[in-house]
Design a protein that fits this description.
single chain; alpha/beta; DHBP synthase; Rossmann fold; eleven-stranded mixed beta sheet; globular; binds adenosine monophosphate; binds magnesium ion
């Protein structure tokens, strides 16, 4: 398949290209588009055939459900059953990096939801995504536009590396702002009333969610490795994810101890290091990949996936990174990094 690459810097002057991409989706084709979180690999979410094409292009197991993308939070109600709590969440966080899992309506095929009776909906906050979705009279099902198992793409270059020849169109809209996938929550209910289950942490933090709904429960798979045979609430959490080829080890400990360990390791073997800016003067300038300042979690989120790809190319024996704290946006960083490291954490 020949993949067409369309670069869009200004939506207003690219109406024709947007309409063309929407026509490809309507005809059952696949279009990669930029969002504020990561790039998405889009197809018509109402079409089982399109959803199957998405799984095939990504090499993704078909029981791992897709997120449907809509232009306005209200539109989601055509495809899912939503109540008052959804509307309050939408008012607070949409458009934005929040995905909500709701009971699906019949129009959404099981091929899109990986066989589940629920569907995940999101309304992205990105001018190109917004323009594209507003041209579509159907929801756009889109997982991250990487090959299954690779880090999510935050630039068109990453997408071209992974999916060239496997999709019809790639829209290059520059770097993704946030750099980590959306927060995913499910609305649940027990005797005490409604509560939220956090299935995947992202830029909408637990503290922010708590402002809208007092009870937020973190699903076990967010922080820990599930036991043999245990099924996560969010099927995607089952898979080894974001995995570099070079073994990644996360270092946990007092900052001075971690730095001393890295210095010692640089003498002993070839290491690629995802370091903090503050550490650069204290390390040898070989295969250093600065993720941002120690406290600058937004920059770390923005650069993480890109640097995992870069560091993997260094061909080092081992890759080191810091184990993040789990406060605020740190929880999302922690969740992605323990997966990338296949839960390899070294206490130093
Ligand atoms: P990605 O599109 O690559 O960011 O992955 C989307 C993730 O959303 C999947 O891996 C699932 O874990 C999660 N997801 C999508 N739909 C549902 C659903 N109906 N219930 C629970 N998790 C879902
Ligand atoms: Mg993904």
């Amino acid at each position: 398949m020949q993949t067409e690459i369309i670069r869009i810097t200004d939506v207003a002057s690219s109406r024709a290209e947007i309409k063309q991409a929407a026509a490809v989706l309507r005809a059952g084709g696949l279009v990669v588009f930029p969002t504020e979180t990561v790039y998405g690999l889009g197809g018509n979410g109402l079409s089982a055939t399109s959803s199957k094409k998405i799984y095939a292009a990504k090499g993704r197991p078909s029981n791992n459900p897709l997120i449907i993308h809509v232009d306005t939070p209200h539109e989601a109600e055509k495809y899912a059953f939503a109540g008052d709590l959804y509307r309050r969440l939408a008012a607070a966080f949409m458009p934005g990096p929040l995905t909500v899992v709701l009971p699906k309506r019949d129009c959404i095929p099981y091929a899109t939801t990986g066989g589940l009776d629920t569907v995940a909906v999101r309304c992205p906050d990105h001018p190109v995504a917004h323009a594209l979705l507003s041209e579509c009279d159907f929801p756009v099902a889109a997982p991250s536009a990487n090959l299954s198992g690779k880090p999510s793409p935050t630039t068109a270059r990453h997408v071209i590396t992974d999916l060239s020849g496997r999709v019809d169109v790639i829209i290059d809209g520059g770097e993704s702002d946030i750099g980590l996938e959306s927060t995913i929550i499910k609305i649940d209910r027990d005797e005490a009333g409604e509560y939220l289950t956090l299935l995947r942490p992202g830029a909408i933090t637990v503290d922010a969610l708590t402002c809208v709904c007092e009870r937020v429960i973190i699903a076990p798979a967010v922080l820990e490795q599930l036991g043999e045979g245990e099924r996560p609430l969010s099927p995607g959490m089952m898979y080894r994810h974001y995995a570099p080829t070079t073994p990644l080890v996360l270092l946990d400990g007092d900052p001075a101890h971690v730095l001393a360990y890295l210095q010692k390791e640089q003498e002993a073997r070839s290491c690629a290091i995802l370091c903090y800016l503050e550490e650069i003067p204290h390390l040898k300038d070989v295969h250093l990949f600065p993720v941002g300042g120690r406290e600058d979690l937004s920059t770390q989120a923005h650069s993480l996936f890109s640097l995992l790809r870069e560091a993997d190319k260094a061909g080092a024996d081992v890759m080191y990174a810091h184990l993040p704290d789990t406060n605020g946006l740190g929880l999302a960083l922690y969740n992605r990094m323990i997966r990338a490291a296949a839960h390899t954490i070294l206490k130093v």
